[in-house]
Specification:
Pfam families: HEM4, Porphobil_deam, Porphobil_deamC. It is built from 18 helices and 24 strands. The protein is an alpha/beta fold. It folds into 5 domains: 119 residues, D-Maltodextrin-Binding Protein, domain 2 (3-Layer(aba) Sandwich); 81 residues, D-Maltodextrin-Binding Protein, domain 2; 88 residues, Porphobilinogen deaminase, C-terminal domain (Double Stranded RNA Binding Domain); 100 residues, 3-Layer(aba) Sandwich (Rossmann fold); 92 residues, Rossmann fold. Helix 5 links the parallel strand 6 and strand 7. The protein starts with a strand and ends with a helix. The relative contact order is 0.08.
Length: 525
């Protein structure tokens, strides 16, 4: 044991305390040690919150470099600060027995503000901020950075602050926990909070063997699950993710959470597994969160610093949103609202020989007013594959469909049986279809099945491409927005309306949302 183990650590009071604990344990086992304090980037850059610095390893990077340069043999970290993927050549050598896992609220005067509508809480943690706002949505959360002592001093100096949130282990370990403090047992801690971790070079068997004697297996099991959960969600310091695992009666209990930055959205997961049967626990819980909107939530957090360049005039499904590639930052909302009308029974009292349905909205209106049995339609003609599919699922066989109304009209002129047709349409509809039919002596009975109301909003100036799905969405958009954009359209009828307002109009190969998304992706390669 003649080799001196050089212990690298940050030079804050808490980091030095943790390093000295490791030093004491190693020396108790007969090893010689030397403390080497190193100032990290995270301690030097205090003008921005951690999550804005964009580096998950902000407190570990300097020590990693020192180790890879062989300036230190091991590094001591708060495990919650360590990225879930370590640099090449560096391994986790030990996890010490865990301390207090809770977050702690340090307050001034009293706790009465917790019942007040207005209060000011300080924290530099995105996770703590989101969970606090989820519980107290009317409170104000301000940023707080620096070492523990500096943060406590800032709390004292700011008269309008009611309290600040700290890791219980941090203020407890260096003996500065104020009397005016309560543990927040409702707040799910950061993955691996309260645990001290030692890293070493993978090639250094002597040091790894020494550190192995410090390892606390129960803490290692629990923190590994928490960090795997974090890794699966691709979080790090940039997302409000909490996780806690603990062992009781030979069972591992886990709870995790993902929130939006403002705390307005929250996805929780809990799971219990027998010890030894827990190896898929983190993956199961992460997938549970992802499948319940976590993927979309993570994407919105990751893209929050990016300016929106594409806007959709129709809301997406989760599956559709996932089709965009990384160069597209998209937002969506419904630029038209549909109101289904009451359709008088006289229109369907007798069998109708020829019926035209050009949208799924018309199908929904019919089925809202009547049962499928009441809809005695001999020949049904449709516009669009999805309208056709819905009609055949809910009403009956479609005799023929086309991708746009003009093509359908021309088909009917040549091939339709009889000289009358009933057209279930919107109050806002294109003139092509009824005009062509009437010019060719086909009588059109129009039944207003639903109303289309404009409900557009003004988009940001960064938007340079817009996705349109009907002439009405185009009309709604131009009421409040500029026309110097690229119009990506679902079909010819929509494109024809877009050409009245925009210079650059592009049409999807097939009339589906997915095909419009494909056009967008090709443009932004």
């Amino acid at each position: 044991m003649s080799k001196i183990i050089r212990i690298g650590t940050r030079d804050s009071e808490l980091a030095l305390w943790q390093a000295k604990i490791v030093q004491k344990l190693l020396e108790g086992l007969g090893y010689k040690t030397q403390l080497i304090p190193v100032k990290s980037t995270g301690d030097l850059v205090l003008d921005k919150p951690l999550y804005q610095l964009g580096i998950t390893g902000i407190f570990t990077r300097t020590l990693d470099i020192a180790m890879l340069n062989h300036d230190i043999d091991i590094a001591v970290h708060s495990l919650k600060d360590v990225p879930t993927v370590l640099p090449n050549g560096i391994v986790q050598a030990a996890v010490l027995k865990r301390g207090n896992v809770n977050d702690t609220l340090v307050f001034k005067n009293n706790e009465e503000f917790l019942g007040s509508k207005n209060a000011v809480i300080a924290t530099g943690s995105l996770r703590r901020r989101a969970q606090w706002l989820n519980r107290f949505p009317t409170h104000t959360v301000v940023d707080l950075r620096g070492n523990v002592n500096l943060r406590l001093q800032k709390l004292e100096n700011n008269e309008d602050w009611n309290g600040a949130i700290f890791a219980a282990a941090g203020i407890g370990r260096i003996g500065i926990r104020p009397e005016e403090a309560i543990n927040l047992d409702w707040m799910i801690p950061a993955p691996a909070q309260g645990a001290i971790m030692v890293t070493a070079l993978a090639e250094d068997e002597f040091v790894r063997t020494a550190c192995k004697e410090l390892n606390h297996e129960e803490t290692e099991i629990c923190t590994t699950i928490e960090r795997e959960f974090l890794n699966k969600l691709e979080g790090g310091c940039t997302a409000p993710i909490g996780a806690l695992a603990y062992i009781k009666d030979e069972e591992i209990n886990f709870k995790g959470v993902l929130l939006s930055v403002d705390g307005s959205k929250r996805i929780d997961v809990t799971r219990v597994k027998k010890l030894g049967e827990h190896h898929d626990m983190a993956e199961f819980c992460a997938n549970f969160v992802i499948e319940r909107g976590g993927k979309r939530l993570m994407d919105s957090i990751k893209n929050s610093h990016k300016k929106t360049n594409v806007y959709s005039t129709k809301s997406f499904t989760e599956a559709q949103r996932l089709l965009f590639h990384e160069k597209v930052t998209v937002e969506s909302s419904d630029f038209i609202k549909i109101s289904l009308n009451r359709i008088h029974p006289r229109f369907v009292k007798n069998e109708i020989q020829n019926v035209i349905i050009t949208s799924k909205n018309a199908v929904e209106a019919l089925l809202t007013n009547f049962s499928a049995i009441e809809l005695q339609f001999k020949n049904i003609y449709c516009v669009g594959r999805r309208t056709k599919r819905l009609v055949e699922q809910k009403i009956g066989k479609v005799k023929h469909f086309e991708n746009n109304a003009k093509k359908l009209a021309n088909y009917l002129v040549e091939f339709m049986e009889g000289s009358e047709v009933t057209y279930f349409c919107s109050d806002l509809r294109m003139d092509d279809l009824p005009t062509i039919l009437e010019e060719n002596n086909i009588k059109v009975t129009e039944v207003e099945a639903y109303q289309t109301k404009y409900d557009g909003l003004k988009v940001t100036d960064s938007v340079d491409s817009v996705m349109f799905y009907s002439p009405s969405t185009v009309e709604s958009f131009v009421q409040k927005n500029k026309t110097e954009i690229i119009a990506f359209c679902i079909g010819d009828s929509t494109a024809n309306e877009a050409k009245k307002h925009f210079k650059d109009v592009r049409v999807a190969k097939v009339p589906t949302v997915e095909s419009v998304i494909e056009l967008i992706n090709e443009h932004y390669i």
